[in-house]
Amino acid sequence: MGELPGAGQDPRSRVVRRRAAAEEAGYVTDLLTDRALGFIRRQRNSRRPYFLYLAHKAVHPDAIQHNDGSFDVAYGTHYIAAERHRGRYSNEIFPRSQIAKTAEQGAFGSVMVQRFLARKNAESTVREFGDILDPGMAEQSIRDRAEMILSVDEGLGAILSELEESGRLDGTAIVLTSDNGFFFGEHGLSVERRLPYEESIRNPLLVRFPRAISGGMRVDELVSSIDIAPSILELAGANIGGQIQGASFLPLLAHGGARRVRRSSVLIENYSDDRPFPWVLDADYRAIRTDRHKLIHWIQHPEFDELYDLTTDPREERNVIKEPANHGLVERLRSDLGNLVQHSISL
Known about the structure:
Layout: E1 18-19, H1 28-42, E2 63-65, E3 71-73, H2 103-107, H3 111-120, H4 123-129, H5 139-165, E4 174-177, H6 198-201, E5 205-208, H7 228-235, E6 266-270, E7 285-289, E8 293-298, E9 306-309, H8 327-346
Antiparallel strand pairs: 1-3, 2-3, 4-5, 6-7, 7-8, 8-9
Helix pairs in contact: 1-5
């Protein structure tokens, strides 16, 4: 998903709410879907292949969408669903993997998370930011998010129906993903969606292309966001240039495929110089995730680095970086992380 203008900036820098002039009436998610459908319909009589990239602004809390087609950019916890969907989940309670009630519970083995939560829960921060903090993620926020995404679900259904009616559905590759996950109270977090824990870094990746991919497949191999571009290029039969980072994941999906492309690890990194939230300003990190372990290197605070065994500790509750038995593993992961970083800047 693309970021809205100003998204990621310090909320205090956006005192004035900016409104985009609406050219036509309607709910923003519906308008984007309608434009996508219009583009697809214009291709009906063409034999040329085409590429459509649709990035919805849902489900951003700072995208206050209105039925006149306009939107406000303002931080908060306001997930505005289309009018037809409001109240759909008013009586629902969505299950969570865990909910931390205090900074100490949320931190578990992470000194850094404990520091973040202590700052977030400080009286001065609460006084300044109010409900923007949404500590632990309120049940109503989760319900509102679920209602807001319903228009995206409907839009995808409309696109699939249009492709089916035109006879192009099974000849069209459809890739659905997102740019980040979210915290629903895990580790005591909510809006801090850029931190390196599983709830934030694991994103959906769904691919439909019956000509080359068997229905109902589930692949557990590691795939990175940088693999999306080469995969789409391969789907289109286009050349994958040497400047393209990542590797196509199509061999993992081929009918009876040999799965000859397999990542042993992925690089995860984030830098807080764009001031996402003041209480995590020293949260720059580089991390490496394998199929079993995750090593998190905090750039400003290497003394608080973390190691998790995701097989025995999938919730990342026990930082085992200082256990003597893991010394060799830590050194190897640090070396592998350095190689990944070096490769990422060498192209």
